[in-house]
Design a protein that fits this description.
Mean pLDDT: 95
Number of strands: 11
Shape: globular
Order of helices and strands: EHHHHEHHEHEEHEHEEHEHEHEH
Strand content: 15-25%
Largest sheet: 6 strands, mixed
C-alpha cells in the first residue's frame, strides 16, 4: 500500500500541466479548472509565467494538478493507505480521498484564495528558513512580529507576516547563520493574521457536499489521521490561521503503515523531506519522471 503527498504552492509549472493533459482523465480535471477559474491550460501555457503564482489561479491550479495526477494514476497504482497535503495541498488531499468531488475541490480552492486575499490587508510574504534552532526562531518571530507558518523540521521553518516585518526578520535570521529562501506567496498563510478567512472558510466547508474521507487524511496542524467529516472541516479551516506542523505530518505518514510514497504534483520537496527525515521510506515525485508510464512502472516494482 502507498501514501500520497499533495504539495502546496511554489513549484507549479506548465510542463506538468501539459503532461497531465495528455491523459483524458487529466484533461477532464483541467476542464473543471477552466469552469472554476475561467482560464484554460492553453491560456496558462501562453503565459506570462507569473500568472501561475497569482493566488486566485495558484490555489485551484495546485489542486487541479494533484487531482489530475490522481485521476490518471488511480486505476493503475496500488491501494492508497494514507494521504497528506501541504498547505493548500491538504484541500487537494480530501479531493483525492473522495471526501469532495473534483469540481467542489477546485471551487473551494478558489473561494479559499479569495477569503485569504481579503483578510490579508497589508503587503505580506513568506520565506523559507533553514539552519535556525526552534528557540531562536521563536525569539526572532516575537521580536520582529512575524510567525512560524510551517514547521518542516528541527531547523526548517516557513516564516510569514507583513512584508515590512519579514524584510526586517530576514537579515536578523541570516546573522544567526540561517539560510533564507523567498517564496512566491504574497499572503501570510497559516498565521493569526488570517483568522477571519479561517472563520469564513469553516462556514463554507460546513455547507459543502463534504463526505467522510475513504482513506485517512493527515491533519496539517498536528499530524493526526482524520476520518470524520466534522474533524476534516475543523482542521482544514484551522490550518489557514494556525501553524502547519509538517514535521508531525511526516511522523504520521511513517506510522500509517505505508512504506512507499508518491508526491502527486509539481516539485519534489515533500518526497525529499520525507526521505531526509525517514531514510527507510521510499518516496518520489511524479515530477521526477518523464511520463506517467514511468511512475506506474516504479510503483509496480
Amino acid at each position: 500500500m502507498i501514501g500520497l503527498l499533495c504539495p502546496g504552492q511554489g513549484a507549479q509549472d506548465i510542463v506538468i500541466v501539459e503532461r497531465l493533459c495528455s491523459d483524458e482523465r487529466g484533461q477532464a480535471v483541467f476542464a473543471l479548472f477552466r469552469q472554476v477559474t475561467g482560464v484554460s491550460a492553453d491560456e496558462l501555457a501562453r503565459g506570462p509565467r507569473e500568472r501561475l503564482f497569482d493566488n486566485a489561479i495558484a490555489q485551484p491550479l495546485v489542486c487541479a494538478i494533484a487531482l489530475a495526477a490522481h485521476a490518471a494514476l488511480e486505476a493503475r497504482m496500488p491501494s492508497v493507505r494514507v494521504i497528506a497535503g501541504y498547505s493548500i495541498g491538504e484541500l487537494a488531499a480530501y479531493g483525492c480521498a473522495g471526501a469532495l468531488s473534483p469540481f467542489d475541490t477546485l471551487h473551494l480552492a478558489r473561494i479559499r484564495a479569495e477569503f485569504m486575499e481579503a483578510a490579508s490587508k497589508s503587503p505580506a510574504g513568506m520565506v523559507a528558513v533553514r539552519g535556525l534552532r526552534r528557540q531562536d526562531a521563536l525569539i526572532l518571530c516575537r521580536d520582529y512580529d512575524v510567525h512560524i507558518a510551517i514547521r518542516n523540521g528541527v531547523d526548517r521553518f516557513v516564516i510569514a507576516g507583513n512584508r515590512e516585518n519579514i524584510d526586517s526578520f530576514v537579515p536578523a535570521a541570516a546573522a544567526r547563520g540561517a539560510a533564507i529562501t523567498p517564496l512566491p506567496v504574497r499572503i501570510p498563510s497559516h498565521t493569526p493574521l488570517l483568522a477571519k478567512a479561517a472563520e469564513q472558510f469553516h462556514e463554507v466547508l460546513s455547507a459543502a457536499s463534504f463526505k467522510e474521507p475513504a482513506v485517512p487524511v493527515i491533519a496539517g496542524i498536528d499530524g493526526s489521521p482524520v476520518l470524520s467529516k466534522e474533524r476534516a472541516i475543523a482542521t482544514l479551516s484551522r490550518q489557514i490561521c494556525e501553524t502547519v506542523d509538517w514535521e508531525a505530518c511526516m511522523t504520521g505518514l511513517a506510522e500509517s503503515g505505508a512504506s512507499t510514497f508518491l508526491e502527486i504534483g509539481a516539485g519534489r520537496d515533500l518526497s525529499r523531506m520525507l526521505r531526509d527525515t525517514h531514510p527507510r521510506m521510499a518516496a518520489r515525485s511524479i515530477d521526477e519522471f518523464h511520463s506517467l508510464a514511468g511512475v506506474i512502472a516504479w510503483l509496480a516494482r
